Amino acid sequence: MHKHTIRRMYEEYAFFIHRRCKRMLGSEAEADDALQEVFLQLIRHVEKLEERETLLPWLNRVTTNHCLTQIRRRSSRRPAGTEVDEIPDTTTVLFDTLLARQDLVSWLVGAAPEEEREVVIRYFLHEESVAAIADATRVSVPTVRRRIRAFVTTARGRLAREDEPE
């Protein structure tokens, strides 16, 4: 492994990885930590990944997986001041509300089943099309739509419960 190879990769990809982490995690400090973790993984696997064709998809996958893990680890406690009446009925307005409340997003996404998380993050945070998500996750378009609907339904249900989540 060459130091200049890692430095070149850092200079080329760090901005994009950091931006992706910040969008997913909602915090500059957490994005800084995530960037370091992703590059530690890169250092461990650099011999296998020096070809550009395999590097970028690998970095995206590792970044997404690391951020999902961090979201999962966050407190499962319901954020203070969250009432079901605050959440509108339409998906578009729900999305806008969730963007304004990163703590709420972390709580809801962290509780979603594994197969829904990536779809939800790609759809709501990365604003990818349903077809692009289907290709990336290797599932059908109807499955992607079903997972998005399931997440929205479950999120509303979690918000409607008066008890604290487990």
Tell the overall outline.
globular
Please identify the top-level CATH class of the largest domain: Mainly Alpha
| Structural class based on helices, strands and sheet pairing | mainly alpha
* Continuous helix count: 8
Query: CATH superfamily of the largest domain, called what?
Result: Winged helix-like DNA-binding domain superfamily/Winged helix DNA-binding domain
What does this structure look like?
By secondary structure, the chain is mainly α. The chain folds into 2 domains: 3-73, Rna Polymerase Sigma Factor, Chain: A (Orthogonal Bundle), CATH 1.10.1740; 84-160, Winged helix-like DNA-binding domain superfamily/Winged helix DNA-binding domain (Arc Repressor Mutant, subunit A). Helices cover 74% and strands 0% of the residues. The chain has 8 helices and no strands. It has helices at 3-25, 28-45, 52-73, 91-100, 102-111, 114-125, 130-137, 141-160. Helix 6 (114-125) runs antiparallel to helix 7 (130-137) and helix 6 packs across helix 8 (141-160). It is globular, with a radius of gyration of 17 Å. The termini are far apart. Residues 75-88 and 162-166 have low confidence and may be disordered.
Keywords:
166 residues, mainly alpha, Rna Polymerase Sigma Factor, Chain: A, Arc Repressor Mutant, subunit A, 2 domains, 8 helices, 74% helix
